[in-house]
Amino acid sequence: MNRTPLYLRPLAQIIAADATPEEAAHLRRMLPSLERAVNSEEPVEAMLRHVREQVAVLDAVEGERAAGNGTSTAAAV
To answer: What is the 8-class DSSP label of residue 68?
Structure first.
């Protein structure tokens, strides 16, 4: 069973710029679950929006790193 470590901040408080690697992985794992919940009309739209935004930031930073760009955004994560 895949259990979330207890030391992670609540999902709504995880911001990509200062997320630990574990928190970043947690955001990515939670995104599909939240999308399914929205599709079944559960009230999670705000949480889904937050997680999508943070995953987009994480993806952008990883893209910059893969391209070899050492921008200040990449250095902040």
So the answer is: T
